[in-house]
Amino acid sequence: MPDFDFAIIGAGAAGLSVAAVAAQLGLRVALIEQNRMGGECLHAGCVPSKALLAAAHAATAIQAAPRFGLHPGPPVLDWGGVQRHLSDVISAIAPMDSAERFEALGAEVLKGHARFTAKDRISVDGRSLSARHYVIAAGSHPAIPPLPGLESTPFLTNETLFSLTEPPEHLVIIGAGATGLEMAQAFAGLGCQVTLLEVGRIAPREDVELAQALARVLARQGVCLIEHAEIARVLPGPCVELAGGARIAGSHLLVATGRAPNLDGLGLDVASIATSPRGIVTDRGLRSLTNRRVFAAGDIADPVGLGPRLFTHAGNAHAGIIIRRAVFHLPARLDYRALPRVIFTEPELAQVGLTEEEARAQGQKIQILRANLSENDRAVTEGDRAGLVKLVISPRGRLLGAGILARNAGEMIGLWGLAIREGLPLAKLAQMILPYPTRQEAAKRAVLSGLAPRLFSPAVRRLARWLTRLP
C-alpha cells in the first residue's frame, strides 16, 4: 500500500489546486514545497506585479484629474509606502496558500526538496515515501538569454525586482512580453524613466493590431519603446549596446525574456520521466508519456501538440484535468481553444482563441469584426477612449477568436471564451442584453456589425415593407 494517494511536488498555484481538491475528497495527500507556499505567483509574479500596477495607475489617475475639473497636487512617490502596499497585499492573500490551511484540509505538508529515487518512490530531504499518483508542479524560473556581457553585469528579474530598496532612476527592460510591458508601465507611472527593448515586436503572441495600439498608449505615457532591437552586448553600468553602436545606459536592468521549467534536481531520469526543453512531456490529459504514475501541472507541463501555458489559471485548469483522470478515471483532456490570457496594462490587452494572424496562417477564410472604444458611451464618460474590440469569425458565423484592448478587458474576455467553447453563432451572441453603459457593449456592437449586412439587405427590407401591410 502506498504511503499516499497523491504526492504533489510544488505548492504553487497548480499544486495547491490539486492538493485542495484531493484532500477535500478524503484522499491521503502529501504536499511538498522547498521554498515558500504560494510559489512564484504569490511572491514574485502575478500578485506583487498587479499590486505595483495598482499603485502606478493611482498615480496616473491623480495626474489625469484636471480633465474632470479636479486639481490635486502632483503625486509624490513614497517608495517605502509602495513596498508596504506590496507586502500587505501578499500578506492578505497568503493565508489561502498557507501550510496551516492545507493541513486543516487534511493534507500533510512537507518542507523540503523532493526527488525521485525510483519510478514509484521519492525522497524528501532523506524521508522516503511512495504514492499512488505523483503530481509534479515545480513551476518555472526566469529564462536568461545568452547575451554577451550579461553574465558579468548585475541585473534584475521578476524574482528580485519587487525587493528594490529604492525606485530605479532609469529602468532598462529587455523583453516586451506581458511582464516587460506591465513593469514598463508600472515604473513609468511611478515617475521613473523607462526604456523597453524587444528583439521583435511587442506582445509577440497577441494580435498585431491590438499590440501596436497598446504600443502607442505606452509611448504617450512616457515609455521609450524600441522594437526590433538587435542587442550586441551588455556592459556594466548597466548599459545595453545595440548593433550599430548605440548605447542605452540605465540605473537598473530588468531581464524579462520568458520562463524555463524547473527540471533540475528532481531525479526525473531515475523515474524514467521524459522531458523536453519546455518541461515534462505529457499527453493531453497531463500524464507522463513514460511513467503512468506521474502527472505534470502548471508551468512545468509540456502536453504533446499544445506546449506549456504559463498562466496561473492554466495551472488551475490542469488540476481539474488531473483530478478527473486520476481519481474518477474520466477521459479528461486539455482544450486550449478558449483559454484566455491578459496583459494587465492600462488599457488591458485580453485575448482568447485565434488571432487574425493565426487564423490566416491556418488558411482559414475569416471575417474580422471591429468596434472602437472611442464610440463606446462608458469610455466617453470616463475620458478613456483608447481601445478596440476585434472578433475573428468563421464562414459559418462562429467565433474563432476575440481580442480586446480596453480598461478591464480581462473582466470582459471570459464571455467570449465561453462563446468559442460552446460554438455559439453570431445571432445568439447578438441576443445578449448587456447593462448600459458598459465597455462590454463594444463587443456586442462588433457582433451586430457582422449581422447588419444580412439584417438590412434589400431582400429583408422588401420583406419588412410587405409584412407591415398585413392586418
User: How many H/I helical runs?
Assistant: 15
Low-confidence stretches: none
Distance between the termini: 80 Å
Strand content: 15-25%
What would you note in describing this structure?
- The chain is of the alpha/beta class.
- The chain has 3 domains: 4-37 and 98-142 and 260-334, FAD/NAD(P)-binding domain, CATH 3.50.50.60; 150-257, FAD/NAD(P)-binding domain, CATH 3.50.50.60; 338-455, Enolase-like, domain 1.
- It has helices at 13-24, 39-44, 46-64, 79-93, 99-105, 158-161, 178-189, 208-220, 312-326, 356-361, 377-381, 409-422, 426-429, 440-455, 458-467, and strands at 4-9, 29-33, 108-111, 114-118, 121-124, 127-129, 131-136, 140-142, 170-174, 193-197, 223-226, 231-235, 239-242, 247-249, 252-255, 259-261, 275-276, 279-282, 294-296, 301-303, 341-343, 348-353, 367-372, 388-393, 399-406.
- The strands form 7 sheets. It has a 5-stranded parallel sheet, covered by helices on one side. It has a 5-stranded antiparallel sheet with strand order 21-22-25-24-23, sandwiched between helices. A 4-stranded parallel sheet has the order 11-10-9-15.
- Helix 1 links the parallel strand 1 and strand 2 (29-33).
- Helix 1 (13-24) packs parallel to helix 9 (312-326).
- The longest helix is centred in the first third of the chain and has 19 residues, at 46-64.
- It is globular, with a radius of gyration of 25 Å.
- The model has no long low-confidence stretch (mean pLDDT 96).
